[in-house]
Prior knowledge:
By secondary structure, the protein is of the alpha+beta class. It has two domains: 124 residues, Succinate dehydrogenase/fumarate reductase flavoprotein, catalytic domain (Flavocytochrome C3, Chain A, domain 1, Alpha-Beta Complex), CATH 3.90.700; 50 residues, no CATH class. The chain has a four-stranded antiparallel sheet. Helix 5 crosses helix 6 and helix 7 packs across helix 8. The C terminus is likely disordered.
Amino acid sequence: MLITWALMMEGGIQVNTGGRRFSNEYDGYSEQSVAVPAQPGAVAWCLFDTRLRDFARGFPDFRDAEEAGAILRGSVVEELAAVAHLPPRAVGETLAEVARLQAGQGTDPFGRDFTAPPRLAPPFFAVRVTGALFHTQGGLMIDQTGRRPPRHRRYHPQPLRRWWCRLWGLRAGYCGLSLRQRPSDRCRLRRAGRRWRRAVRPGQNTRLNYP
């Protein structure tokens, strides 16, 4: 079940099971598909308020998540932490720090600019997310051996690592261009693949969604 990334771009935050932020949420869902699985339990919690809840209801997937009971509510920080099984002190400190950043006091250690969106206000909402493959933006077509199908083997005669195939669209995003045509892309995929293999276990999904 997809949880729209617009929640983060419009002012929401993500915390791990320790109740702490761990990244710049503005980096995007592709980047978070590496950051989230690297957290304890390979999950994170999206935290937002009524304004963002009402905004997200414009997305059918979010309404489906509400109907499924995936969206948790807390009138105050302690109540939200209790229903999400998060440490209340850590969540309270995180939201307090975000409030200071939204007021223009201090600099976010992860580099996010909090001054544009309105401040988060109670009641608060939370939804648990993890990683799963969303789309490839072009990607590579391969057969069961990891090779390109016969009509596509001009540029890819050798088997490609599974991570490279997944990362082609997600990390490079150049639809229709081959690795042979763009050596710089090959280097980019190698670096991304190494980061991915350290963060994600084989067989684990790679899209942010409600498990």
